[in-house]
Every structure is written in structure tokens, then in C-alpha cells.
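Chapter summary example.
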Amino acid sequence: MVDVFDIYDKMERNNILLSFKGDITSELLTSILQIMENKMDNMQEEPKMKKKVYNVLVECLQNLYHHMDDMAETNTDKNRSAIFMIGKVSSVYTIFTGNYIANENILGLKSRLDEVNSLTKEELKEHYKKILNNGEMSMKGGGGLGMVDIARKTGEKLDYNFLEIDNKVSFFTLNIKVTQQYA
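The structure predicted for these 183 residues follows.
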């Protein structure tokens, strides 16, 4: 039996403002963004912080949405299932995402994440411009700007992990901190 109070208590202790687990759709993304905008309005969040959180949230949710299709090829029932949470402790927002990823795609993603994490603020800016000027788009419609943009907007390293589920899939988690200090 599920201990609902235990789940509630953990969410309360970690000050989770919003949590979702399931199929990611474009309609859901719109709803989540609206809910978070309303929550930040109700918390009377500063406009600059609200904009930063909203922009990073958009990137995180788009990454979830656009990369869910990668799992369709693994023939599992986990093809579009993901988790998303956003919490706030003091003045720091934390965005947590998690989704299944085919093991064959881990090396490429890890390489891109490590590259982003190795860059300085100025190098991130140059890398962003290079991607934009390159004009190459992935099959998902982006040019790999999402993670670069998140790193630029937060000034934080991308905190990620891969948990192997079986020989075909792993669970990819990304934890992003958004603070007011970084401009």
C-alpha cells in the first residue's frame, strides 16, 4: 500500500511547489508553465527572478518533451513517462527532471553535458553563438542550445545522473538550481 502521508511529508520537507509524473504532452507543458507563473505571482516573486525561473523551466520541460520519443524504439511501456518537480528553499528554486533514456544514447548526452560543464561563462556565451551561427538543427528541432542556455541563465553546473535500469534503458535525472545572485 502506498503511504500517501510519507510522500506528502517528503514533499513538504523539501518545499516542493509542483510535482508531476506521467506522460509529457504539449498541453501539459502549457498547464505547468501557467501554474508556476501563478504560484510565483502569489509568492510575489521579483520580476527578474520570475523571468529567470520561467525561462529555465521552459528549457527543462522542452528537453523532457522533445526527448521522450527516443524511448519509443526500445519497445518498453516507459516511452513517454517522466517526472518533474520544482521546489524552493529560501531564495533558491530547484528544478528536478527525470526520464528514461536508451543506454545507447547515454554516451552522447553525457559528452554534451560534460562539455557544457567544462565551459566558463564567457566560453558558454561563445559556444551559444557558435551553435546559433552554425544553423544546424537536430531531428528534434533544436541545435543543442537547451543545456547551454540553462547553464548560461543559472551560472550553475548541470547536475545530472544516469541510473541503469536494465541492459536497454537507464533513468536520467537533471537537477537545476536557479538563484537570484547570478545575472
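To summarize the output: Residues 4-178 form a domain with the Heat Shock Protein 90 fold (CATH 3.30.565.10).
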